Amino acid sequence: MFNDGKFTMPSVTGYNSLKNESHIYNLLVDKLKPEQGDVVIIGSDNENRRIAELAAKNAAIATIMSHDRHNHV
Q1: CB atoms near residue 14 (< 10 Å)
Q2: What is d(CA 61, CA 70) in angstroms, rounded to the nearest whole number?
């Protein structure tokens, strides 16, 4: 999640996920222009693009299912 100008993991309050990766942080902010509370999901795999895609989709579904507003709809 993008909170207070940092990319954080929802399960780890306040942890700056890209603290040591300024070039990736700058790329994501420049290209995606995230706003407070936006979620960015990145899936990766060194050998199989399909596995990376499935990982990102799984993370997106898990995020949606655990989101408070979704649970109250």
Answers
A1: 9
A2: 11
How far is the C-alpha of 37 from the C-alpha of 52, rounded, in Å?
24
4: CB partners within 8 A, 6+ apart: 36
Residue of 69, 45, 43 lying closest to 58 (CA atoms): 43
What's the pLDDT tens digit per position in 19-56? 899 999 999 999 999 999 898 988 888 999 999 999 99
| Stated pTM of the model | 0.69
What is the DSSP pairing of strand 12-16 with strand 2-3?
Answer: unpaired
Q: Tokens 């100008």 belong to which residue?
A: 5
| Cα 27 to Cα 18: distance, rounded to the nearest angstrom | 11
